[in-house]
Amino acid sequence: MARNGYRVAVVGATGAVGTTMVRVLEERNFPVSDLKLLASSRSVGKELTFRGDKVAVEELTEKSFEGVDVALFSAGASVSRQFAPIAARSGCVVVDNSSAFRMDPQTPLVVPEVNPHAVRGHQGIIANPNCSTIQMVVALKPIQDAAGIKRIVVTTFQAVSGTGMKAIEELRLQVEALVRGEPLPRQVYPHQIAFNCLPHIGSFLDSGYTEEEMKMVNETRKIFEDPDIQVCATTVRVPVYYGHSESVAVETRKPLDVKEAVALLKRADGVQVVDEPLAARYPMPLDAAGRDETFVGRIRKDISVENGLVLWIVADNIRKGAATNAVQIAELLVREKLL
Amino acid sequence: MARNGYRVAVVGATGAVGTTMVRVLEERNFPVSDLKLLASSRSVGKELTFRGDKVAVEELTEKSFEGVDVALFSAGASVSRQFAPIAARSGCVVVDNSSAFRMDPQTPLVVPEVNPHAVRGHQGIIANPNCSTIQMVVALKPIQDAAGIKRIVVTTFQAVSGTGMKAIEELRLQVEALVRGEPLPRQVYPHQIAFNCLPHIGSFLDSGYTEEEMKMVNETRKIFEDPDIQVCATTVRVPVYYGHSESVAVETRKPLDVKEAVALLKRADGVQVVDEPLAARYPMPLDAAGRDETFVGRIRKDISVENGLVLWIVADNIRKGAATNAVQIAELLVREKLL
Questions:
Q1: FRET label pair with A95: which of A213, B131, B138, B226, CA 20 to 30 Å apart?
Q2: What per-residue confidence (pLDDT) applies to B3?
């Protein structure tokens, strides 16, 4: 650590996740001595505010990482594939929010509440998991520890912010056009998203699953270091701005009763239990927006199987699902003296 | 059959389902000689159009069913509990869209594509299943027949029209208020529904499940006449006007490969397969609205279990989920000479 903090770069600084990374660095008081905001040449000239100061966006180049201690990447997989290795070679530790390195055996895939030890083996790049995976493993961690997870059947309700700024704008413009009786703009999604549900996130594979669905399968196994966990995912885009919701049926190896599961979840790191159904209290994306916790409710026995629980898991996909998790990884690197 | 058709009553004629029942009777050219529109005294004075004629709404009383051959009820369980037995005693056959008699062992619970034979034993009242159950059993019928269903894990994405006219209005008013930056009206749901998801449909039971979730369990078993089918349901309200979507993982007793399942679904009564993911073609509530078919897509192997399939099932909850199914039951009664 040079001077009174670390030299931090945010790559993709003007995106939905990048702008939130800057805000979270400030909110969590991460020890930043210098902040470098990097983006494509199109964003040069823009400014973001950090601790009351305007910081200009600079163009991302191969030389951007000289003197940088840690770089938080959120500019898509192709930018990460090109620039993360360059940043790592220049001595900077990369926390990468894209899918580029997540399944690379050399790259730790880390959720600080779940597998913090995994950062230790890093070789310059640490991957941030997919948003839908993060909130699910945070909620399932105490269940995996207590009873072992055999199978997960998950269906997601994913907010448009997960697609990025343009998708947030598309939902807003579609709703406004509908209210005014005007023709609907449509550029980001293949179908109208306002007042609709699209069972389509990421590209489709030959198996009929989407990339997003297989991320939930493969990343869950890697984070839990348990290749025997069976996962079936259906991922769906819904007309919500912020906050992914997940309906999760989890079958455990050993019995785990609901009361015990609730007690474990209440003690779990990063989890907030919201489960008073008779008072109409359960997690909702509108309440999770802007928060860093993973909210868990509707906790009940799965009546269709011997050892099973059903959960409703909600988190802010841009914060815990991306920006906050990345900053937490940087904090973990500081604590582990790996920066 | 008197004269050139049947004397038909619609109870709850001014509601979201009732008005659609009248439209569907006309569209499907049901042999109606007289149409009686019944509702509470608050609706007296209103008129609906049937085959070009205005029909006045009359107040529902104990004498309303004299001379009526078939009455389609959709005015809530308490109205059905009070008036359906009176109607049946006056010689009229009741098709009841409420939950009042669905689980009564004397009352057939009928989806014409699935268990048409069940109407034969009727004793004056035939129940229309819950909207979420209807579309699921239509899609699962060929799978049950071919391979036997062991377990269903279902998560629903339910439109506000399922709650009724006032809920449709609430979503519309909330969206308009948000666009205009005005305070949000909220009367129907316990939380904002616009841009949110509520894992709460029907009242909560001590088990942590909702009434809606248990309807899917119990009605599925009754319709398939198979008490061994295990069902775990999570039912969620989403900001969609018309069309329920369902993410369904079904475990079968015998193996059934995806190609065979698709072939069976393509031939199944009332089903339309929409499953060309590479062309971004899959069922969506926006496309299902106004249609009578049950749309099935995203058909794939459940990779988390030995014998399993995953499906995405969408139908118009007001039409196939309620009004159309009720009119189809009336048509079945005509075919079976039970009217």
A1: A213
A2: 62
- Range list of H helices, chain B: 16-27, 77-89, 131-147, 165-180, 211-224, 258-267, 285-288, 324-335
Residue B2 has pLDDT above 60, yes or no: no
pLDDT for the residue numbered A3: 62
Q: What are phi and psi of B333, to 5 degrees?
A: -60, -40
Q: Do domains B6-129+322-335 and B133-317 have the same CATH topology?
A: no
Give the Å distances, CA to CA, from A263 to A38, A201, A266, A296, B312: 44, 34, 5, 12, 34
Out of A92, A117, A131, A197, the active site residue is A131
Check whether B151 is labelled as a binding-site residue. no
For chain A, list the strands marked E by DSSP: 6-11, 32-39, 47-50, 53-59, 70-73, 93-96, 125-127, 149-158, 230-237, 244-252, 271-273, 294-301, 308-315
Concerning whether A197 is annotated as a catalytic residue, the answer is: no
Distances (CA, A) of A268 to A130, A139, A146, A313, A315: 21, 8, 12, 14, 15
* CA distance, residue A318 to nearest chain B CA (Å): 16
Is there a contact between B278 and A204 if contact means CB atoms under 8 Å apart?
A: yes
pLDDT, residue A4, reads 83
Strand order in the sheet with B308-315: B230-237, B149-158, B244-252, B308-315, B294-301, B271-273
ipTM: 0.97
The whole-angstrom separation of Cα B49 and Cα B175 is 30
CB nearest to A151's CB, from B234, B241, B304:
B304
Partner-chain contact B232 A302, CB within 8 Å: yes
Report yes or no: A95 and A330 within 8 Å, Cβ to Cβ: yes
Whether A244 sits among the annotated catalytic residues: the reply is yes
Residue from the list B190, B234, B286 with its beta carbon closest to the beta carbon of A247: B234
Percent of chain B with pLDDT over 90: 99
Domain boundaries, chain A: 6-129+322-335, 133-317
For residue range B227-262, list pLDDT tens digits in order.
999 999 999 999 999 999 999 999 999 999 999 999
Distance CA(A316)–CA(A323), nearest Å, equals 10
pLDDT tens, residue by residue, A194-246 = 999 999 999 999 999 999 999 999 999 999 999 999 999 999 999 999 999 99
- Measured in angstroms, the CA of B281 and the nearest CA of chain A are apart by 9
Q: Is the Cβ pair B197, A157 closer than 8 Å?
A: yes
Cβ atoms of A7 and A30 within 8 Å: the answer is no
Q: State whether residue A335 is helix, strand or coil.
A: helix
Query: Residues of B with catalytic annotation?
Result: 131, 244
Asked if A258's CB is within 8 angstroms of B199's CB, the reply is no
The CATH label, of 3.40.50.720, 3.30.1330.60, 3.40.50.10490, 3.10.450.50, for the domain at A6-129+322-335 is 3.40.50.720
Distance from CA of A194 to the nearest CA of B (A): 8
Neighbours of A51 (CB within 10 A): 11
Angle, vertex CA B338, rays to CA B333 and CA B339, nearest 5: 80
**CATH code for the domain defined by B133-317:** 3.30.360.10
Selecting from A192, A240, A308 the residue whose C-beta is nearest the C-beta of B195 gives A240
Q: Enumerate the residues of chain B whose CB falls inside 8 A of the CB of residue A285.
A: 195-197
